[in-house]
Predict the structure of Retinol dehydrogenase 13.
Amino acid sequence: MKFKAPKYFLRISAVGSFVGGVIIFKELLGGHNYSGDENLLGKTVLVTGANTGIGKETAMELAKRKARVIMACRDMDKCLEAKNDIVMESRNKRIHCYDCDLASQDSIRAFAEKFNGEMTRLDLLINNAGVMRCKKSFTKEGIELQLGTNHMGHFLLTNLLLEKLKASAPSRIINVSSVAHTRGNINFDDLNSVQKYDEGEAYAQSKLANVLFNKELAERLAGTGVTSNAVHPGLVNTELGRHMSIYKSWIALLFLRPILWLFLKTPRQGAQTTLYAALSPDLEGVSGKYFSNQREAEVGEAARDGEAAKRLWAVSERWTHLT
């Protein structure tokens, strides 16, 4: 007597195969995990924007490797919630929440003063926090928000922590940028987007500023034992796009978000290149480079402009009152 499977069984089997295939496809599309198993016991690492998305996943992986993790965030409630998640999963209690709003230079200076006073070392600084394609708005100092947060805030923070990084050498700085930098242009005639504001252009400008900052910083740090590299995490499904109006529409809910879920990286997948640049022994002494998918990648033409990098540095020093 032959067994004939019920129709509902065949349907369930087909659905299961489809779902399994989708999951496998998404995992393959997201790339491979960073394979290093470095023990970071005794090391202190700082991650900005560590309460959500790529930043939280980065902090999680560093905590699992036994580092002391400083979570620099502007929302302390969300930071404490993320900290609890990290402590529970990593079994590492050396996780600290610090208040740091990158859209406020007073907040950055207060954070740096507290950090430099309380921490004896800094082995790894990950400039991860950012905003994307938001409506025209400004930092507390009157700087266009995307440029002010993504670039100027991290520029000031990094400079205020440089002596601690040098004293802890060999140490590393990781600047999370984006492939969007290839579409960017540093408009020195209207750097603050006063005459014209396009949210996409302003975001691309801020990401180009990240790469130019990385280039000039690496040159200035040559011989100190501190390296600086930039990374593109990939196209990642995070809260970064929360300011985009299309994300809030019913069209996004029904059609866009499912598609983005399938084709965009998860925050965990997006954190892998950051981890590679931060931890890989292969990158010891490597500085001024740009990485994507855990490999060195080419930067856009504008990001190779050394004179623009120096000019942006000088402007950034003035706008952050470092000179």
Notes: Residues 42-235+270-319 form a domain with the Rossmann fold fold (CATH 3.40.50.720). The first strand starts at residue 44 and ends at 48. The chain has one domain: 42-235+270-319. The chain has ten helices and eight strands.
